[in-house]
Amino acid sequence: MLPVAFLHSFVGAFDFILHQREAVTGGGVQVGGPAYVWHFARTQLEVSAVALAGAMAVGLPAGLVLGHLGRGEFFAVGFGNAGRAVPEIAVIFLLAAIIGIGLGNVAIALGILGLPPILTNTFVAVRQVDRTAIEAAEGMGMRAAGVIARIELPLAAPTIMSGIRTAAINIFATATVASFVGLSTLGDLVTGRNVYGDDGVVAGAIAIALLAMCIELVLAGVQALVTPRGLKLQRARQGA
Amino acid sequence: MALLAAAILAASVAACGSSSSSTTTSGASDNLIQSNPDNGNVTVTVGSKNFTEEYILGQIYAQALKAAGYNVKTKLNLGSETIALKAIKDGEISGYPEYTSTALGSFFQVPANKIPSDVTQAYDMAKSDLAKEGLVAYPPTPFADANAVGTLTSTANKLGLKDISDLKGKSQDLTLAGSPECRARIDCLAGLEKNYGLQFKKFTPVDIGLRYTVLDKGDADLSILFTSDAMLANSNKYTILNDDKGLIPAGNVIFIASKKVADQAGPDFGATIEKVQQNLTLPVIQELNSRVDIDKQEPAAVAHEYLKSSGYVQ
């Protein structure tokens, strides 16, 4: 019985994504269809991109420098772990009272959410770079900036990227709540059972899940691209 | 502070107490609910949904029925209307206060544009629909808690806004904030566009808890407010635009009870409910809501003050 109901709601949800229909509250108001759903999805993607860019702009340099210096482990890791416990809704509503609603509010709140995995992963990744590679570079006369940019960053890149992937998925999934503070994201559908019906709610959830998977796939591809050939060979050898 | 609020309430109650043409002191004694010893054998359970106005209304009805001699229990935290309706049908509660618009829309799937904005029509419709389910709907309260288009009074003055129709030719420069689902509701944004022919610069979805914040912070020019909001009590800061085309469904409260319970409870049950809500005009309910939401008083105490100052109890 349950699987049938489950299947039924999936069929209804895909119908909502593909075809227009009248809102549950009537009056000839048309909702649903690809363009309607995309409008919400696009806003959610946009605000997520802004937030992720912000988190990277802060987390990457901080993680690289602290990792290079080998200082601030307490800050980079401790802050990172504490940051994961921050209730996102509370941040968004607090910011709503301070700076108001809209893109700025949501981007800051989601940026705070995305910062910990980026900062922590970057710090740890840089610390774990093979010391002999760094000493060799320094022995050849490379300065700190060069060591960071040409040795540590490339060798740390895969781990940094996996932090960015985590941040991106967290940010995108959480951007659903932006519907409560001025941005029309897919949260409109997820919370709008009264007007969009069960089909609309499930359609919103499916759209979020599908887009999150797309983001994951694309970033996994980027991660493969930024992984230096030497590291790949090393891993292949260790695996064999 | 409490004294001041009590004075304001007493004044507004006196001003609205048209049921008695005599002086206020004798009006109070007319209102007094008489305790009937026969009712002591009957136990009634008053329910309510889980927000301020419902808590207060639940307390008012419960305390009034107690004054009429009934053995009263309360279940004032039922959640949504779906849960409350099920509680009546399961015999868990005898009845609870519900909004006409919600009863019609949620229980009987009446499309929002088919729910009358006229209270008598809406009540008649709800009453006959509920009767088919074995439920009784008592007559509506004087006040209506309906959605409304609101703005800062300063904005209203500047733009010359009194009715929603006055937005014509101005709305394209204005931002409207409302709950996310307002967008597609025929009694909200979709209806403002369709029935009033308005186009807004932007629609901003917000949590209903932020409906005044967006006006205060200048994030929106217009916001969907509720007519009985505590924030509107004794304040001219905000202005509600008159719904001159009757777009918004009537939000007066009707007490819904199961017919079985109502019959068992006898005539005092309905008579008490009708009597005790007579003074619940819009300014009064706004004031009561503000005592709970803003002054942080207990709903039971606020309800008791209302009953006392209106002369329903001593």
Explain what the structure shows.
The complex is a heterodimer of chains A (240) and B (314). The longest helix of chain A is centred in the N-terminal third of the chain and has 36 residues, at 34-69. Helix content of chain A is 79%, strand content 2%. Chain A has helices at 2-18, 34-69, 73-83, 88-98, 103-127, 131-139, 144-174, 187-190, 193-226, 229-239; strands spanning 20-22, 30-32. In chain A, helix 2 (34-69) packs antiparallel against helix 7, helix 4 (88-98) crosses helix 5 and helix 6 runs antiparallel to helix 7. Chain A has one domain (29-232): MetI-like fold. Chain A is mainly alpha-helical and 240 residues long. Chain A has 10 helices and 2 strands, in the order αββααααααααα. Chain A has a two-stranded antiparallel sheet. With 314 residues, chain B is of the alpha/beta class. Chain B folds into 2 domains: 28-143 and 252-309, D-Maltodextrin-Binding Protein, domain 2, CATH 3.40.190; 147-240, D-Maltodextrin-Binding Protein, domain 2, CATH 3.40.190. Chain B has helices spanning 2-16, 24-31, 52-67, 81-89, 100-108, 119-131, 153-159, 189-194, 213-216, 259-265, 267-276, 282-293, 299-309, and strands at residues 43-47, 71-75, 95-99, 135-137, 147-152, 175-178, 202-205, 222-226, 238-240, 253-258. In chain B, the strands form 3 sheets. In chain B, strands 7-6-8-5-9 form a 5-stranded mixed sheet. Chain B has a 3-stranded antiparallel sheet with strand order 3-10-4. In chain B, helix 1 (2-16) runs antiparallel to helix 12, helix 3 (52-67) crosses helix 13 and helix 5 packs across helix 6 (119-131). Classes of the chains: A mainly alpha (240), B alpha/beta (314).
